[in-house]
Amino acid sequence: MTSLPTRPLGSTNLELTEIAFGAASLGNLYRVTTDDEAFDAVASAWELGVRYFDTAPHYGLGLSEARLGRALAGRPRQEYVLSTKVGRLLERNPHPTPLDTEGFHVPGDLRRVWDFSRDGVRRSLDDSLRRLGTDHVEIVYAHDPDQFRAGAAREALEALAQLRSEGVVRAIGVGTNVVDELPELFRDGLLDVAMLAGRYTLLEQGGLETALEPALAAGAGIVAVGVFNTGLLSVAWPASDAKYDYGQAPPDVIARARQLAVICERHGTTLPEAAIAFPLLHPAVSSVAIGMRTPEQVQSNVGRYKHGAPKELWADLIASGLIEPAAVALG
User: What is the CB neighbour count within 10 angstroms for residue 56?
Assistant: First the structure.
């Protein structure tokens, strides 16, 4: 068994491994994952030193939480950090469908109901703890509040702050791919952490001024997710039919990704290795969470993380106008 470096989560007393296990695939995201694959993927992550695991009720209508809980059962609870999310309650579907309609290969016998109220947050967390088979989680995120209505994030965070004051959770935040509300939420001291999906990557750094810099100023942290931009940066040479932001990548985006790939190769690294390394250059980023489905994917991604990228790569990418200079400390 190995260990991985950790980083503090803002001004909380939590430490996160620099690589985290994103468990959406354990909920059969896009295709079926077997119970054995799920169990073995978590076991492989543990053996390689990963100690931060993230899930949500949304992922497979609770399947991800249930599988992750079973896979972590028996592990020393004080040795890992666990996060889940609130905002989508799971209720019996009055009109069941053969398959879930939101991208997970599970029966549609349950449905998601938006609820960021105080009661909804508490009920959601209670249900999650039951599925996970634990009496606490360290971090709770309000999940995609921007997709529901204005003010939902603030409502959920007020409820989560009460749970934090009661010692039920240790850190609270939002999980989102929209940055519009984040500067104000950080400025008002409502966030310990933001899980930022796809908005701060090797390909695009829009979240630098709207999320990372406000987080740093507030003494909060960022968990970067979606660092491969829906798979576009997950291979050494992006294909012409590559996906980006959950859809077909436009030609100009593919061209930019290929520019990145050429420069990465010049410096003895690959596009996915650089994509994992890049967010960790910024002091606001505490961890990079990567979705992993099988032991092979875990081993590949941890290997990519360990390979890293040379300092000269970042200087070259800055000179080429492909990454923001403020993202990289080259001292």
Answer: 26
Length in residues, the chain: 331
- What is the SS3 string spanning 61-124? CCHHHHHHHHHHCCCCHHHCEEEEEECEEEEEEEEEECCCCCCECCCEEEEEEECCCHHHHHHH
Q: Rounded distance, CA 62 to CA 132, Å?
A: 9
Please list, in sequence order, all residues whose beta carbon lies within 8 angstroms of the beta carbon of residue 159, skipping any fewer than 6 positions away: 116, 117, 118, 121, 122
The tokens of 13 are what?
């007393």
Contact present, 174 and 195 (Cβ < 8 Å): yes
Q: Report the distance separating Cα 71 and Cα 47, nearest Å.
A: 13
276 pLDDT more than 60: yes
pLDDT of residue 331: 42
Paired with 235 in beta bridges are none
Catalytic residue from among 59, 80, 141, 200: 59
The answer to whether 21 and 45 are in contact (CB under 8 A) is yes
pLDDT tens for each residue of 97-122: 999 999 999 999 999 999 999 999 99
Q: Which amino acid is at 300?
A: S
For residue 304, name the pLDDT band (cuts at 50, 70, 90).
Answer: very high
**How many distinct helices (H) and strands (E) make up the chain?**
11, 14
Q: Three-class SS of residue 328?
A: coil
* pLDDT band (50, 70, 90) for residue 246: confident
Domain 6-327, what fold? Answer: TIM Barrel (3.20.20)
Give me the phi and psi of 136, to 5 degrees please.
-165, 155
305 is catalytic: no
pLDDT band at 329 (very low <50, low <70, confident <90, very high): low
